[in-house]
């Protein structure tokens, strides 16, 4: 499964735990160190952690993937899960608005993660 397939798995897992405004960005041609970002928002710290747990479980079960690193779980305002060619960002609303990754990476194409097949550019 490629990065976009794993991104779709992660986005669906986030949606199952009520992640809000979930987007997948194809950033590979822009930054070169990863292929895709998944960005989603949780309503509170507990929900952010629950979303992270669900994403990790889904990627393990469906793609046999484990994160290389996870940062930010302690305060959980912004958790970053690094899967190499995929980076998952789970934010609280205030942090998402402050860092505004969608604006920062506005040139990156959005990937349709909601279709059943693996998403591709």
Overview of this protein structure:
With 121 residues, the chain is an alpha+beta fold. The chain has a single domain (3-104), classed as Beta Polymerase, domain 2, CATH 3.30.460.10. 40% of the residues lie in helices and 24% in strands. It is built from 5 helices and 5 strands. It has helices at 3-16, 28-31, 45-63, 93-99, 101-104; strands spanning 20-26, 36-42, 69-71, 78-82, 86-92. It has a 5-stranded mixed β-sheet with strand order 1-2-5-4-3. The longest helix has 19 residues, at 45-63. The protein is globular, with a radius of gyration of 13 Å. The model has no long low-confidence stretch (mean pLDDT 93).
Give a short overview.
By secondary structure, this protein is α+β, with helices and mostly antiparallel strands. The chain is built from five helices and five strands. The protein has helices spanning 3-16, 28-31, 45-63, 93-99, 101-104, and strands at residues 20-26, 36-42, 69-71, 78-82, 86-92.
